[in-house]
Design a protein that fits this description.
With 553 residues, the chain is an alpha/beta fold. The chain has four domains: 222 residues, Rossmann fold; 99 residues, Rossmann fold; 77 residues, Luciferase, Domain 3 (Luciferase, domain 3, Roll); 107 residues, 2-Layer Sandwich (GMP Synthetase, Chain A, domain 3), CATH 3.30.300. It is 30% helix and 25% strand. The chain is built from 17 helices and 28 strands. The strands form six sheets. A 13-stranded mixed sheet has the order 2-1-11-10-12-13-14-15-16-23-22-18-17, sandwiched between helices. A five-stranded parallel sheet has the order 4-3-5-6-7. A hairpin with a 3-residue loop joins β26 and β27. The longest helix has 17 residues. It is globular and about 70 Å long. The two termini are 44 Å apart.
Length: 553
């Protein structure tokens, strides 16, 4: 990956998009089901929504909550917030009452936008005393009495007068682990633009822009490819949101599936219909169902047309070589797997263009390295184990959490490192082996076990489709290694078979002492797991400590 140097554009993203709307207004910016919205129309709708939000008290620095799945109104609301210098807040649309209330208490938005399909959760949260204006997007249900219909707000005269916006305005990326409470990472507009230069422009052949005029010129240049991007991953996650923003930066088209759930057959039909060339996924959670549908359709003699796809991207999720190989049976595309985090990065990446590139290997990104726990860079020697760190453009830190900020954004010898806690082992050259997040490392009897290392060995079993490894509390050892495993479709699998497969491959202390076999491991569309539920399941399995037991669910 290329290092970014030299002068930088430092603008509010709405300033960038406004300029693009003026230059390429007739191009299609968004496709959502049967709707095709041009850049000029997108800007007009965002300007009307911005005016309506301002009438409801939203101003510079205020927050706007987005409790919504992937659809056009999500992008419009982000754009409208930017026009006001306000801060859009991404909220997981799978949250229930208490989770939603906790996130709103943390970020204190003045407005909450949500679709009809999530109105029951919002109503259950009982936000009447919270002082939050409710805006409801139509997707087939009645409007709550306390809410206002989204399309009604768009009848407001558009916002046209200058606003106090700039590159120092903020963007929140709310992130929450499977066991932790949500936290909001605070980016500045100018910093985010600088961090996205490689992602946005790296594959276009264009030089990185250093002025607003150059941004517009690149997007308007007919020789620069304008991507058609399908974010299958939810926009509430940074990877999908940033790539949608980058697509608009290039004068391209963002394509949505038009529904909350993931249907692989629908996704492949949308790819064919709209000639999608960039697909944003969440590792195996999306890749495995896509491969199954591609294989099924090909075997039936009705293959999906995926000839337009040139790039498939994932970040921060398990994307196995087996799933990559399955995709390459059907795609002539680059598979770009990024080790990143909402807190910053990228830290490392792998590129796979053909089966010859497998097994894939991770390489450190420009600006990334491996440091010890005090933040000092480790010698570039194979076998050294430490924490991935990134020293490039990064967020300001966590919203209203200076203590947590100080533990992740380390100031060492005059240099600022982003260190979210991912352990890695250095290999030859710039290659690294990812070992897993520090909070997930299992300390068993004083020995550290990195779940990713055990998961890789389990996934090498020919009958295993998916697995997750974690620690379970243990009175003697402090924690014991446990695993939940699912078999490939049509295969049978027992815990004893998994245990036998691992014997001789792993040191004894790394061997899972409890193995649960399930038909499938439930992951969200973004690849997330309910780790609390998995730990409880493993504890209830009651497997002997010295021998894995079969516990099928």
């Amino acid at each position: 990956m290329v290092a970014v140097t030299g002068p930088q554009v430092h603008e509010n993203w709405s300033t960038l998009w406004d300029a693009l709307a003026a230059a390429v207004g007739d191009r299609v910016a968004v496709v959502d089901r049967d709707r095709h919205t041009t850049y000029a129309e997108l800007e007009e709708r965002a300007a009307r929504l911005a005016a309506a939000l301002r009438e409801r008290g939203v101003g510079h620095g205020d927050r706007v909550g987005l409790f919504c799945y992937n659809r056009q109104e999500y992008l419009e609301s982000v754009y409208a917030a930017f026009k006001l210098g306000a801060v859009p807040v991404n909220i997981n649309f799978r949250y229930k009452r208490d989770e939603l209330r906790a996130l709103l208490a943390l970020t204190e938005p003045g407005v909450l936008l949500f679709p009809d399909s999530l109105a029951e959760v919002v109503d259950d949260a009982d936000l009447g005393d919270a002082g939050i204006a409710l805006v409801q997007v139509n997707d087939g249900g009645p409007v709550l009495p306390a809410a206002q219909a989204y399309e009604t707000l768009l009848r407001t005269a558009p916002l046209r007068d200058p606003q106090p916006i700039g590159g120092d305005d903020e963007i929140f990326i709310v992130t929450g682990g499977t066991t932790g409470t949500p936290k909001a990472v605070v980016w500045q507009h100018g910093g985010l633009f600088a961090s996205q230069l490689v992602s946005a422009y790296g594959t276009t052949g264009a030089a990185f822009p250093t002025t607003l005029d150059e941004v517009v010129a690149i997007a308007a240049d007919p020789t620069v490819p304008a991507p058609h991007t399908l974010p299958i991953s939810p926009l509430m996650h940074a990877m999908a949101m940033f790539n949608a923003m980058n697509t608009l930066l290039l004068g391209g088209t963002v394509v949505f599936l038009g529904q909350a759930g993931f249907d692989p057959a629908l996704a492949l039909r949308v790819i064919a219909e709209h000639r999608v060339d960039r697909v944003i996924i969440a590792g195996n959670a999306i890749a495995v169902p896509l491969v199954a549908e591609l294989d099924r359709a090909a075997a039936a003699g009705t293959p999906h047309d995926v000839s337009s796809v040139r790039l498939m991207m994932s970040s921060g999720m398990l994307w196995s070589d087996d799933a990559k190989a399955g995709l390459l049976r059907h795609l002539d595309a680059m598979l770009f797997d990024i080790v990143g985090a909402s807190e910053g990065g990228p830290f490392a990446y792998s590129t796979v263009r053909s089966p010859d590139d497998l097994p894939s290997s991770l390489r450190l990104a420009a600006g990334a390295t491996v440091v010890d726990e005090s933040g000092h860079e480790l010698p570039h020697e194979p076998g050294r184990t430490g924490l991935l760190a990134y020293g490039g453009v990064a967020p300001l830190g966590y919203f209203r959490d200076p203590e947590r900020t100080a533990t992740v954004y380390l100031e060492v010898d005059g240099h600022r490192w982003v260190v979210p806690g991912d352990y890695a082992r250095r290999l030859e050259g710039d290659r690294v082996e990812l070992l897993g997040r520090g909070t997930a490392v299992v300390n068993t009897g004083g020995e550290k076990v990195y779940p990713a290392e055990v998961e890789a060995e389990i996934l090498a079993h020919p009958d295993v489709a998916d697995c997750v490894v974690f620690g379970v509390p243990d009175e003697r050892w402090g924690a014991m290694v446990a695993a939940v495993v699912s078999p490939r479709e049509g295969r049978t699998l027992t815990a004893e078979q998994v245990h036998a497969h691992l014997t001789g491959r792993l040191a004894g202390y790394k061997m899972p002492r409890r193995i649960v076999v399930r038909d499938r491991i439930d992951r969200t569309q973004s690849g997330k797991l309910n780790l609390r539920a998995l730990i409880a399941m493993a504890r209830e399995a009651g497997a002997p400590r010295e021998k894995a037991s079969t516990h099928v669910q």
